[in-house]
Amino acid sequence: MQEKPDAADLLATAREVVLNELLPALRPEKAIAARMVAAAIALALRQAAAPPMSEADLAALAAEIRAGRHDPGTESHAQVAAFLRDYARARAAVSAPKVLG
Amino acid sequence: MDEAALRGWLARASGDDALRITALTRLSGGAIQQNWALDVEVAGQALRWVLRTDAPAVLAVSHTRPQEFALLRAAREAGVTVPAPLFLCEDPAVIGRPFFVMARVEGIAAPHRVVKDATLGGGREACVAALGRELARIHAIRPPRADLDFLGDPQADAALAAIGGLRARLDAAGTPRPVLEWGLRALERKAPAPLPPVLCHNDFRTGNIMLDAQGVAAVLDWEFAGWGDPHADLGWFCAKCWRFGQVAQEAGGIGPRDAFLAGYGRPVDAARLPWWELLATIRWAVIAADQAARHLSGQERSLELALTGHMVPELEWDVLAMAEAL
């Protein structure tokens, strides 16, 4: 067993230091860099905690969509639409959870 | 920068042998262009100019400085609020690259300030109405125009050309993006019929427009201008992805859409706007992915570029909803 605190705890704690101790002490023009560091840590934490994504053949799916093979009216339309919704939700949950409400 | 060579050239261009450069400082700027604040004394008068030139690594998709100078002149003649274009030097021997000089305009373009600071723009509704008028003046420029011949012939179908251009960029980037493909295919199925082409700014959005307390100080960043469907600019300006958090203010995060369109004043086919707003969302996703690719490839390691890539999933989430509603 690895020693605690683990990666998630360390990153979360480091993020608090960036926001609470470093940010107020920085020159205003450097505030944005500190906020970006905090955002990157938060994003990395969400990505590490996220369930693995499906192994779908995305290149083939993209080509089929472009060729119109999943257009409304096709048999696969509803299934592909549902897959894309799940896929987009899983990606947004890591990169931009706020948009999921 | 060879200041003596620059001074000599400016003296000849301005017709004042005694022209003096009193300050020349690099402004923060993009990876594509370099902007220099240039203070001069001409005929006893202190003037504040901007010198604009290419960065050493020029991006092929953007216009050259002589072309941008021609666009600024055309825009100014059409009554668009742009910095006055003053002198163009196409001789690379003077400072190493072609450059042009324009008047220096004071104001605020930073998007998060523009959407939050109600003292900017002369009132929120008035501001978006004024921006609508600016866009209408841009769209009054029609082909053919000998001075803008570098724009090439208008596309026969601007909507389908836009879809084709984004697919080509996705293919060149090489990352499969089924959600963006889904949106593009929805656009393709519902593409609007072509309209007579007008000059489109192609990056008319909050962040590229400078405001002061009175109103619009300058419409900036002309490097993507070209012939197209006027609704492309309207959709780009109104798209949710360019509201910088002020989602309820549908005109660029600044004010109401109705006031913007009323200021625009020209006939608008309202049914085309959702189409072009979806295209705008996909276009920004493609650009954001390309920016992250510059970080990932090692070409330009940057936390800002890295985080820009993580905007893509939010845009994709919007693309699905917009495609559904189209």
TrEMBL record, chain A:
Record-given protein name: Uncharacterized protein
Organism per entry = Falsiroseomonas frigidaquae
Automatic annotation (TrEMBL), chain B:
CDD domains with a match to the protein in the record: ACAD10_11_N-like
InterPro entries according to UniProt:
ACAD10_11_N, AGP_Transferase, Aminoglycoside_PTrfase, Kinase-like_dom_sf
Coiled-coil annotated residue ranges, if any: none
What residue stretches are annotated with the Aminoglycoside phosphotransferase domain? 24-268
Name of the molecule in the record:
Phosphotransferase family protein
Question: What is the organism field in this record?
Answer: Falsiroseomonas frigidaquae
